[in-house]
Amino acid sequence: MRKLLIILCMLPILANAQDDNKFKKGLKKTFKYATFYGAVNGGNSVSDVDVFSVTNGLETQTVKTPFDYSITFGVRKIARLGYENRANTFYNGTEKSFSDAATIGKVKGFEFLFEGELARQQGTKFINQNHFLRYVADNWIAKVEYLQDGFADIEYFEASERYRYKIGKKFSFNIGAAQRIAEPYGYDPLEEWMLSNGNLHYTDLAIQEGYSIEFDGMGGVTYYNPSGGLVAENTQIWEGVVIPEMLSNYTEKKRDQLDQIIQHSLVVGFDFYHYEKKWWLHSWGNLMPYHYDDDSQYSYHKYNDGQWLDYSGGLIFGYNFSKSLGVFLEGKYNKYWNRNWHDFSVGVNYVIR
User: Fold this and answer.
1) How is the chain split into domains, by residue range?
2) Which letter, b or e, does each residue of 201-233 get, where b requires 16 or more Cβ atoms within 10 Å of its Cβ?
3) What would the pLDDT profile of 134-143 be if each residue is shown by its tens digit?
4) How many CA atoms lie within 13 A of 132 on its CB side?
5) What is the DSSP code (8-state) at residue 180?
6) How do strand 109-121 and strand 325-336 relate by DSSP bridges?
């Protein structure tokens, strides 16, 4: 997908590259005002925690969490809106603008963002990516996006082509088609292991996955992992620690084995932008009320019993009561395939003058 996005990014250049001189001009025009950046950020995580046990006398174990970090690389060419200020001299990868998710930017024409991040937070590693290409004209919009959010466990590629109808200079509607490529969300690998009473046949599943159980004939039992290592000497540890880990690994493995599927959807949306120094409002929304059912084995229609609503939106509001006092509200919300992820920020600023 990333290669596809890079190729699409180069299309405006290649279209004009009939000779070397035009190629250089096209390259310069495409990346003019773009910023390439890379940064490593880090800091301490949660403090060490002492865990006590009295099973075999008093025992103390210290749980240490490694430091947090993020490694970010990217390139962006997105015009800043009136309410946005460049806070830092250099981009360090920690800048997050809610307006990046908007359907329409400040200027007409071509804008893009490519950003990848490897992060560790409280000992857990995540890969986050956000890449998009956007072209906005007076009466049409085209956008290609690839998103991977490790925190929300969501990953998809999306393209949309929309007709845009403007009402004045601040408000517009849009309607068109969207195509999304993603894993078959809704698929439950554990469904085939469910018993008629609603319980999970986890023992048979564990044995299939290579675990083994040995009884000593005197009521004792030991459990071994697929490598033959001892993992539990009682049922409590087996069911409370080993089985949850086995189920997590199994579901992740089964999901990774499936091919990604494409979903065609109808999309409608709006965008509103007003800015003046005293107050500003930027809002946008997208709704996918209808999705084509190709009747494939892993179609989400089967898991959802028919149609469903996918939507996303954002709101950025600021108001200055005076030169000293101001309030703000910013946020965005997404819900795809009944999976949701969101960010928000709300607060007040008071400057003593």
Assistant:
1) 1-32, 33-186+259-350, 191-257
2) ebeebbeeeebeeeeeeeeeeebbbeeeeebbe
3) 999 999 999 9
4) 22
5) E
6) unpaired
Query: pLDDT by residue (tens digit) across 221-260?
Result: 899 999 989 988 888 888 888 999 999 999 988 888 888 9
What is the CATH number that goes with domain 33-186+259-350? Answer: 2.40.160
Beta-sheet strand order (sheet of 230-232): 212-215, 221-224, 230-232
pLDDT band of 17, cuts 50, 70, 90: very low
Question: Taking the mean position of all CA atoms in its chain, how far away is CA 57?
Answer: 46
Closest to 164 (Cα-Cα) out of 134, 126, 207: 134
User: Residue with structure tokens 């085209």?
Assistant: 142
Q: Is 255:183 a contact under the CB 8 Å cutoff?
A: yes
Task: Check if the beta carbon of residue 186 is closer than 8 Å to that of residue 337.
Answer: yes
Q: Would you say 134 and 142 are in contact if contact means Cβ atoms under 8 Å apart?
A: yes
